[in-house]
Amino acid sequence: MRNDHHLTSEQLLADLQSPDETIRAKAIHAACPCEAGMELFEKHIDLLAGMKKDPSPLVRTVALHVFQDAFEGICDSFPTSRAETTNEILRTRRQSRFKREEVETTENKPLLENKRRVRRLRNQR
């Protein structure tokens, strides 16, 4: 593995075939979209996907990180985990609930007052 983070395709291919797991892990990380941009990642996506099944736990972990970063780069506005999805749903529900209460108390205030007057009048009879 070379010291620079900017690998050429040939360097990446050579390092991914290294028997040393540290060199393979560094090569995968160098192909990460957060390091090298999407171009190198997309060019070797099939090879990098295969690294998720490497015998080395270190290599598999780095490969999964690379794909997670790529997914987050493509889908920045979308939640990427179950917890984030749940939080987004709850945030939306809370916002819509509070907006509904604001609408009832501000826009319909005269209407609500009229309904209360009508009830009072009915109760007085």
TrEMBL record:
Native source species: Capsulimonas corticalis
Lineage: Bacteria, Bacillati, Armatimonadota, Armatimonadia, Capsulimonadales
Name recorded for this polypeptide: Uncharacterized protein
